[in-house]
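Could someone model zinc ion with this protein?
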Amino acid sequence: MSSETPIPTAGPLDPETEARLHALPKVELHQHVDGSIPAEVTWDLMRHYRLHPASSLDEMRRFLEIQAGEEGTLLAYLDKMHYPLWVTQFYENISRAVEAICEAAAGAGVHTLELRYAPLIHTYAGLTPRQSIRAALSGMNHALKSSPEMKLGLIVIAMRQHGPHIAKILARQALAEAQHLHERTGVVGFDIAGPERGNPPRLFRSAYEIARLGRLGLTAHAGEDAPVEYVWQAVDELGVDRVGHGCSAAREPELLRRLARDGITVEVCLSSNYHTGAVGRGETHPLVAFLEAGVPVSLCCDNSTVSRTNALRESVLAASQVGVETVETIHKGAGAHTFIKPETALPDPAKGS
Ligand SMILES: [Zn+2]
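Reply:
Sure, complex below.
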């Protein structure tokens, strides 16, 4: 497709349909902290430290949100996470950013929210990995005060480029904060992200084994920027419950049958996939192939700030491709695939109960 072909975006829906999708209780299973911090919050924090590289919030948005003409490359997309990292190296700032993301999600009608977070890239000013995880959890606990009906949980990400040994260390750190060990919001899952090619899932087997034994939910970014073998490995060798993106899987019927048979959910991120070039301009999104094959799916933002989206806009965009009823069915079904299971939580020893 030529670069003239427009990127699909959530167009205007009739007000009745939009109201219907807004009222729909939505399930968000794949949203990154770094790419989802509201621009206002990053702007405010950067100004506080006199680190702002722009003279106005509107100008700042250009550094944080994908711009027309930048779509289609993963590097341009990932570059948008660069500035928020400057200020999310301190406990209070991480907590504030996470709280703001949760509040924004609640505003878009999200009832179940799993945020994912790479603790190590927030330790450059001296936080330990445990403190970094706790800072994110503290933001979620604050958000629960204003939105007590929300179900919240954190997925810990090991960055692929840090290698398998660091991933094992992180899996152990994640376990110590696991939700089923505490009564408060906790870590519910484990993931790998970052440069996919050259870092195949099988390298991370030991880390996933640790996370599995510790009863964390397992997901992995696979098949976003790499061939279908990477998705097979995530399924066969890591034993994932869910796959992030999984775009390349849509080209292999045998794998689609396997995902459907084993109930392995694909976390579908429509806008992000068009923005990074995982799905080409004008191409039908693999969501359609997943649905036709009976693969469980969820609709996710990936990075709501970078992609200028939210759960409502993703639902609107999906509805334009597969219909409103299907979107409603997806959100109703996605609740079964969340890693958040507060009912299995142990009483928090800190509360003495
Ligand atoms: Zn992602």
